[in-house]
Amino acid sequence: MSRSTDCGPASPSGVAARIDRLPPTRYVWLLIVLVSFGAFFEIYDIALSAPLSLGLQAAGVFHRGGAGLFGLSDQATLIAVTFAGLYVGTLGFSAAADRFGRRPIFTFALVWYALATVVMGLQSTAAAIDLWRFIASIGVGLELVAIDCYLAELMPRSLRGRAFAVSASIQFLSTPLVAVLAWRLIPGDHLGVAGWRWLTFVPAIGALLIWWVRRALPESPRWLEAHGRAPEAEAVISRIEARVAADLGAPLPPPAAAQASGQDRREPAPAPSLWRPPYRRRTMVLVVFHLFQTLGYFGFSNWLPTLLVSEGITISKSLAYTAVLALVPPVAPLAFSLFADRAERKWLVVSGALLAAASGLLLSRMTQNSGFLLFTLIGSGVAIGNSLMSLAYHTYQSELFPTSIRARGVGFVYSFSRLTAIFSGYIIALVLDRAGAAWVFVTIASAMVVVALTIGLFGPRTRGLSLEEI
User: Global pTM?
Assistant: First the structure.
């Protein structure tokens, strides 16, 4: 053990202090990239829905309009079972990451998703495809919860915001990847295999690489110490410190004095619960947040082209907005990383929601005669606001629960976004049909305002604090 890691046995406060003093070296950034690899497929899974539906329609597996299963749209059913699977994964299985650890669940969930998606690609009926899509999405829902917890616990407090920003950029690279693959593969056959099937085989690459990724990732030392495995926590944090010190070519600075916490008391603290103070209020705030942010986020990102066409904008201009939307998610988080740790997290959520709401309302005022530059600038405002809100809340919600129940807490509150996503399309379609596009814009913007008020008024502050202090 190097001089820089000779800090004695790991303790709850000692592990936190030793992680929080780590500088952002090459090894720390490598951990961020490796953890982000799993979340890449969560975004791939969601982005896959639209081109996969087109490919299945071209192949004659899916039917257009209401000629699908049970007299419903096959595309709508595919989207619904996707979010239903995400809901089951985040709510029903997220506690497994608290019980068994971050690394094994990270591995298990990604392999689950990859294998289930490949099996889906081998099916030939709408019912079988929907079934395996649901099963695959359960793995994705579990994966994202584990990744958010993993990233929050491995990163020093001065780097958490930037870490999530870079991770988001890596994840959203899957959006243009899906677009390019769909463009090249759909419609038609390749090597005697339908193009839509090739799209579903791509995640198998993740299954092949996951064993290498797993070897390179340590278990969360915070999770180990929270489960009474102090010797293992000591071994893991010492290895991390040794790698970081090797990158620096010098000993690490000494950790700050350990902060007193409930875990340091001589009498054991009661087991934390989502429904006991202070976590009860945080849980309720995040539940309300997710119920409304999903309506706002997916309302803008999925429906704006349709809404603009209904307002008289040409399809070409509407599709130009879609192109902007596809470019913003991978690029914007890199810009956000410049201030992600300098601004209070809750205010980043609020700013993103209000920017998306204001830009969406302005976009609803655009006409066929509006300049293309103005149109794309305001459209970019919607995409940037959505991206900022998404990045900030993923960081924020992972900070608000203690290590022992972090995955359970994140999974529980995040499941409400998946639940809302199942029905949000139907809600927006109903408003569009009954009241018109203008009221859809108002509905979506109002949801974003509720998001901003909920977090702004009731969300706690987290900037610059250790996870244990929060």
Answer: 0.83
